[in-house]
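Same chain as my last thread, 150 residues:
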Amino acid sequence: MKAIIQRVSQASVTIHGAVKSNIGIGFLVLLGIEHNDTIEDMQWLVQKIANIRIFNDEQGLMNLDIHAVHGDIIVVSQFTLHASTKKGNRPSFIKAARPDIAVPLYEAFVAQLQQSIQGTVLTGEFGADMKVNLCNDGPVTIIIDTKQKE
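reply #2:
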C-alpha cells in the first residue's frame, strides 16, 4: 500500500458537481492499493497515519499528531499511485489491485482509521471521477509505502 499524506488546512472531494466530503484541519490521504497488499499492510499503515507527528507545536516544530489538533481525515482511493513509467510514455497500472481485492482493503482501512483517531474519517468514492480540492498546509506531504518501511 502506498499513501500520500498531505497536511491540510482545508480539503474537499466533489463528485458529479456535489461535495461529498469536506474538512478543515487534518489530512488528505491518497491511498493506493497493490494486488499483493495484505491486512497486515493496512493495519501498519493505519497506525502510522494515526500517530504521525506532522503538525506544528507552539515552537513551530512538527511534534503534534492528528489527535492533538482535533483534525479530520479524507481518504481518497488512487490506483495511479502504483503507476509504472519504466517503459514508454503511457503508464502501466499492472501493480494496482483489482476492485475485488482493493475495495475490501480500502473499506477496512477507512474503518480502522476511524477507530484509531478521535476526529472524523471521510472518503471519496471508490472508482469515481473525483475533483479533489485542498490547501496543503506547509506544504507538508509525506509518502509512506508499506513495501519500503523506512
